Structures are given as structure tokens and as C-alpha cells.
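Honest question from a wet-lab person: if I give you the sequences of every part of a complex, can you actually get the arrangement of the whole thing, not just the pieces? Trying it with mine:
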Amino acid sequence: MKRKVTLKQIAKELDVSISTVSKSLKDSPEISEDTRQKVQAFAKLYNYKPNNIALSLKNKKTKTIGIIIPEIVHHFFATVISGVENVANEHGYNVIVCLSDESFDKEVINMEMLANGSIDGFIMSLSKETQQKKDFHHITEVINQGMPVVMFDRVTNDILCDKVIIDDSQAAYQAVKTLVNKGYKKIALITTVDYVSVGKLRTEGYIKALQNSDIKIDENLILKIEDIDHCDEAIENLINHQEIEAIFAVNELFAVTAIKASLKIGLKVPEDIAVIGFTDGIISKYSSPSITTVSQNGIKMGGKAAKMLIERLEREDEDDEHYRTEVIETHLVERESTPTL
Amino acid sequence: MKRKVTLKQIAKELDVSISTVSKSLKDSPEISEDTRQKVQAFAKLYNYKPNNIALSLKNKKTKTIGIIIPEIVHHFFATVISGVENVANEHGYNVIVCLSDESFDKEVINMEMLANGSIDGFIMSLSKETQQKKDFHHITEVINQGMPVVMFDRVTNDILCDKVIIDDSQAAYQAVKTLVNKGYKKIALITTVDYVSVGKLRTEGYIKALQNSDIKIDENLILKIEDIDHCDEAIENLINHQEIEAIFAVNELFAVTAIKASLKIGLKVPEDIAVIGFTDGIISKYSSPSITTVSQNGIKMGGKAAKMLIERLEREDEDDEHYRTEVIETHLVERESTPTL
DNA sequence: CTGAAAGCGCTTACAG
DNA sequence: CTGAAAGCGCTTACAG
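Yes, you can. This is the full assembly:
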């Protein structure tokens, strides 16, 4: 077992000072060719690598990004991490992942934990509970301490910082319009409770699209799901008791559940009922029939968020208060759950 | 903007020494009740939190776990991270995630990056390329430096360390036996190339189950997929050109692709062809028909791996060479893709 | 060209 | 009861 070697040990072995070793390894012109080579050879032999923690303390930067998301088992969030990772690694940054589990308290604890010097900045998406409580003090605090934050997807207007979002309302509008254009009138909406920001925005898009098409909003066709884990019965109930020609679901879980409920009842998709989902994930692709969705490119969102954060971290004028909101474009991926015209 | 406050600043404000402040905050009995209260009040007011990096340097431990996996967008790996996170957080540890993207080079780079003091230990699953090359020097090196490693799922016998696995061969055996017991004889196998350890083991289980049931192995019914992203044609081809009653697939992607190919050809699942997959993920659950799978509890595997790692990290006798291999039990989740007897 | 010193933010054995 | 000193592993302005 050969433990990691330090500058101190090298200095001792070679009978020079620590400063000399440090400078030699950095190819400082202060050092004689001779010593430099000797030190470098020795360092290579012992596979010297500078200690990151010491560097972090010295430089006051960790080259690490903290990412806080509600869940990792949601495909969308996993793709975002993947996007962040890519860009981060390209720039020599590591990524610490913390999960809030949709809990306000866990979100706060995680942020405080990471804010104590472990990372240089945050990339985050709000937990449901945080959105419900509208308590963002933990985020304000971190920002006030001078640590940059980039929010994505589930963001809030109450916090001033860089953001990466999609135009949820517009994307939903387009999706519903597509259904209308295909001739559907009785279009149901399966959405989240209103305090989930993106759910609310997508609901708005749905309503706008119908109004704009002179279709009357039928409250009976709008289902707001509180508990995502037990959405089956509610969705089955909706399909069973209402005359529905098409469904717009604000995420792919609701979409696939709607399809399975329809099939169970004996309806054919898309012949008897068409379905459009949101967030183009693995479920939509592999469902039978596969599901037409509004694609929300998580890789791109994560990549963009990382880019914005790193740019801010490496900018000269630290306290630039000019925050940007980047809107990632979406598009409709047409699959089997909607008929071709 | 109020920057983070340090011991030094508190000491200056209160006109005491840094040592006194440090001790006061730690409730050291050395300090007078008076000073202690004064310091604590001040610290609270300024929301003092010790700097993690400084603590890490001092204590030579970071309370951070590094996890290296091939992909995060694979549901199984996401669940493992989730499991690691839970247990890690319970014990005050953070988790740094690095993705190898199935690349040997990225795996090596990531490990070296994290091994330079950023973390206390690794939890990892080998990249495909690493398994193919059988080059594990980066792992040996890390272990030799005294940094513990726990491997899971895609492990190797060439490295001595703690491991968390399932009994892949046995689980596959059971799955295939179940098909045999349901009366199927012409059972196809869709598997990975042999260098993927778990693919190979599951293949072995398949073969053993057939041999044990006196069914002759038909090489034409065994499909080894190299490129997972383009498995469609190969699978479609298999189903089209062979007489098959049932399929055992070594992951859920192959399983769902097999189902979609069957449906496309006009076969009914499970009436015309039954399917069992492996790794109980979101796809299996939401496919239509839903897929019977061998469940591989990622949360549990991740949790166990984290537990083993943390135990080793916090053990007294650092250099305990007694490594354990923990086998997580699996079971068959029966769904619609196999008929009930 | 080389090295001692100060410093990043903390802890703790030791002296007074 | 308080504080100076040494140290974790590094960097860098400064002295010689």
C-alpha cells in the first residue's frame, strides 16, 4: 500500500524546500532546469497528484457544482444531470447530486450542507413542497452569500437568478392546437395541482388553445392529480365517465396511464381516443402504442444550465446582477398515439 | 450581500483568539460559560457555519462518496444512486456522481479526478469498455492508496473489494424455468455480448435452465446484441425467422423491443409469444402489455453499497482485508407478458 | 536560483 | 480560562 505522496514528502526525499517542489511542478521559470527535471521525474515516479481539497481551500473555489433535484428516478431529471455532467466535466468541474425527494426540509438541509464551502454554485429545480410553501429563504440566503444559483424547469419569479426553462404554456398550447387541427373537440386535460409551476403553465396553455379555437372549457374534462402515485383510479374514472375524444397529459406518466386505462376499458388508441403527453422520455417511446409528446430536452437544459453557471463563476466582475432566462425550444414528437391526418 | 463569516472574523469582532472561538462553538469545557455564550450568540447572529473544505483538509476525510456509473439515464442506475443518496445522507455524507458513458478512458479520468482527495471512497459499476479491456489498473491503484471501493452489478473477480451483486445466473435460471413450467419449449434468448459480465451470467442461467429441463440448446434462438441502440432490426429478424414460443431478455430494453417487434409482425403477447425481461424498471411497468421481469432492486443495492462503504470508512482497523460480497435477492414480478397458468 | 513565511479555515495539544 | 503554535497540503509574494 503506497499512500498518496505530498509535496512535503517529495521535498524531504529530494532535500529541497516545499516551495521549490511546488514551483518545479508548475514549470516556474524561477527554477533551474536541473532541479525542475529532478523534481518532475520524482513526482512522476511516485505518481504525485495535487490534493484537491488543499487546492480548494487555497483558491477558494472547489470546481464542483451542486445540483439539487426533486427525484433522480424521473427520467427527465436524470437526463438533466447527464447534460450538466457533460458540460461540467468539459470544464474540469465535478458534480455533487442531492435529492430533495420533493420535500422542503430536505431541500433546505441539502442546500445548507453544500453551501458550506463544498461547491462553487448551484443548479436546481424546486421541490413540490417548496413550490407549495413559496418559502425560498434558503435560496435567497445562498445567493446573498455570493454563491450563484441557476434554476431550471420548476423555477419561481420570486428569486432573481439565471434560469433555464421551456415555454410550458406555449408548448402546451401547440400540442392542444395540434389535436384541435386533427378535428378533436372533446379534449380532456390531465394535469397536476396548480402549485406545481410547470403544471399550472401547461394548464394555461391548454385553456388558451381551446378558447382560441372557440371550444368551450368543460371543467369535467379537467383532472388535477394530487398524488401522482395513485393517479390510476382518477384517470380511469375520467375516461369511463366522460365522453372524450382526445387527452392532453402534462407528463408522460399521466399519458401512459391514460393509455393503459383506455385499453383496459376496451377503447383503442388512437382510433377511439388520442393521447398527447409531455416530456419526451423512455416511457413515451416504448409504450404500445408509442406516445406523441412535447419533447423537453433535458440534456440540453442541463447543459445550458451548467454553461450559464460556469460562465458566471469564471467571469471577472463577480457581482453582475444581470440575470438571464434561457428558453429551450420544444417540439412535438409525433408517434402512434395520435393519428396521422 | 453578507459573505460567509469565519472564525477569524468572529475572533476579531469579539476580541478573543481564534482558538477560543473554535472551542466555544464546540462547547469545550475549557471555556468559561460567559465567553461561550457570547461567542455562540454572535455566531448564531451571523449564521456561522464551519467551512467544509477546511474541515476536510484538517480531518483528512471529506464525508463525500464518489459514485461512478456507466449511464444515469438507465433507470436501474438512477435507482442505485437514489439508494446510495438515502443512506449517505443519513450518515452525513454527500454524493459526487460521475458518468463513464461506457468509456474506459472516462472511467479512468473520473476516478483519478476524484481520487485526489475529493472523496473518501468509491461506489462503482464497470463500463462496458472496461469489462471488455479487462484493464482495472485504475481501480487497483485507488485501492492501493488506501481508498475503499465498493463495486456493484457489473463487477469483476480480478479486483478484491466489497461487492454488491445479485445472483444473475440463478435469477435467469429461475425466469427460464418459469417459462418451461408454463409449458414453453422454444424459448429464445436476447442477451448482450459476452464481455458484459451480467449478460454473460444471465446467459449461463438460461442455458442451465434449458439443459436441466432436457431442452436442446438451439443456437439460432440465441441473439447476442452488440449495439444496444440498434437492437430493433436484429430482434425483429429473430422473431420473424424463428419459431419462438417465449423470449427471455436480459434487460428490459430488449424485452420491450421484442414485444413491439412481435406486435408489429402481428403476433399477440402473451398469447402467441410470452416475454420475460430483467431489471424491473419503469418500462416494464408501463409497457402494454406490461412485462414480467426479474426485479433487481436498485434502491436496495445502492443502499447496501453505501452502507458497506461507510462502515469500512468508519471502522477502526483501517486495513481490514476481509472483503464481503453481498448478494441481493431477486424475485420474479409477474405481469401481462406471461400468461397465468 | 532557492527557501522561509504567510495564508486559505479549521482543530487541538500545550503553555501560561 | 485563554491563546500561541503547529499542522492539514497547497501557493506565491518576497528575501537572500
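Two things worth pointing out. Chain B touches chain A through 56 residues (CB under 8 Å). The radius of gyration of chain B is 26 Å.
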